[in-house]
Amino acid sequence: MTAPTTPSAPASTPAGASAWVTVDAAAIRDNVAELVRRAAPAHVLAVVKADAYGHGLVTAARAALVGGATWLGVAQLDEALALRTAGVTAPLLTWIYPPHADIAGAADAGIDVTVGSAWNLEAVVAVARERGRPVRVQAKVDTGLGRGGVLTDWSEFTAALARAVAEGAVELTGTWSHFAWADAPQHPTVRAQQDRFVEAVAELERAGLDPGLRHLANSAATLTNPDAHFDLVRPGLAVYGLSPVPDLGSPQDFGLREAMRVTARLTQVKQARAGQGVSYGHEYTTDRDTVLGLVPMGYADGIPRHAGNAGPVQVRGRRHTVAGRVCMDQFMIDLGPGTDAAPGDEVTVLGRGADGEPTAQDWAEAAGTINYEVVTRMAPRLPRVVVGAQDDA
Ligand SMILES: *Cc1c(COP(=O)(O)O)cnc(C)c1O
C-alpha cells in the first residue's frame, strides 16, 4: 500500500499524568510496509507479543495489518485470545502454552497453535478428537537455537504428525524455526540452521506432508538475510522501528522509525549547593552550586535501575544524565546552574534519535541491556497515548 508519511506528531499529553508513552501507529504501519517491501514475495507475520513490545497489543496489531502484514504472532495463547476478543480476525500464530491451556478455545477462535513437542501434538489431537474437527497447527523444529521446538526426534515427530494429519485431527498450516545468531548474519550457525531447516521440511515432504508456510526469519534476518525469508518472515522489533542489529545500522538506515516516545514532566526543580549527595546512597554528588530536577519515573515504570548515573534525557532541547540511583518511582537530573527549566516541563526520556532525543538504544547502552528490553518494560501504569491511528483496520 502507499502509506502517507506522517511527520512525527507532537506528544499529546494525558491530563495530569506524570509520565506517559506515546505510540505512533502510523510509524508501525509504515515500518510494516517497509518490511513487506523487503520481504516480498514472502509475507509478513508481525510479532505483537508482550503487549506489542510495550506499544499496546491491539493498537499495534491493527496498525501492522494496515501496513500489509497478513499474519500476526504472539508468544502466549492468552495474548492470542485477547486479540480475538478485541475483534482482530487476521491469521494468528501462538507458540507458548502449558499443559491444560485452552487449546479448544484457541481452535474455536481460529488461532494456529504451534506444536513443538510430542506432548503439544498429543494435546492438540485430543482436543481435535473431542471437537470432531481438525485443529490448525504449525510444526516447530529446533534447528539449533536450543530453545523451543523438536530437537533430536524430528523423525518420530514427523511420523506422529503424519498420523495426526491422516486421522484428520490436525491441519498443518506451517513449519518454522528460530535463529540463535540472526543478529550476526555471518555467524556459521546461521547457515547451519537454514540447512537444517530445509532438511527438516524435506523430511515432512518425504512423509507425504505439505509443510505449509515455511518461516525462520526474525527482524534481524528479515533485514540482513534474504536467503532466510522462505514463505513468511516474523519481525518483531523492527515493526516498532528499532534496529535489531545496532552495530550494522540504525533504524533510519533500514527505512524504519521509532514508534515509541516516553515523556515525563518535571515535578520539582530546586537549588542545591556544591557537595550535595543525590538520591539513595549518594552515588552522585554535585560538584558546584546547581539546580536539580525530579523526574517522576522509576524502575517501577520501566526505567532500568542499571542506568543510574548513565541514562540520558532531554529537557528544553538539552541532554542531561540520570544523577545517582534510579528509585522505584523517580530519579533526579542535574539541570546545571543556569537552567531555565521549571516544574511541568516535558522531559523526553526516549524518542526518535532523528530529533536529537535519547533513543531506546541509548538507554540500552547506558544500562548494559538491549533496546528490546527497554521498550518492552515500559510499565502498564504509564498511560498510552496513540497518535497516527487509522480507523480502517
Ligand atoms: C520474539 C520472536 C520473534 C520476533 O523477534 P525480533 O527479534 O523481535 O524480530 C520472532 N519469532 C519468535 C519465535 C519470537 O519469539
UniProtKB/TrEMBL annotation:
It comes from Phycicoccus sonneratiae. Its EC number is 5.1.1.1. The lineage of its organism: Bacteria, Bacillati, Actinomycetota, Actinomycetes, Micrococcales. Belongs to the alanine racemase family. Substrate binds at residues 147, 328. Signal peptide: none annotated. Catalyzes the interconversion of L-alanine and D-alanine. May also act on other amino acids. It comes from the Bacteria. It is an enzyme of class 5 (isomerase). Residues 259-387 form the Alanine racemase C-terminal domain. InterPro entries: Ala_racemase, Ala_racemase/Decarboxylase_C, Ala_racemase_C, Ala_racemase_N, Ala_racemase_pyridoxalP-BS, PLP-binding_barrel. This is Alanine racemase.
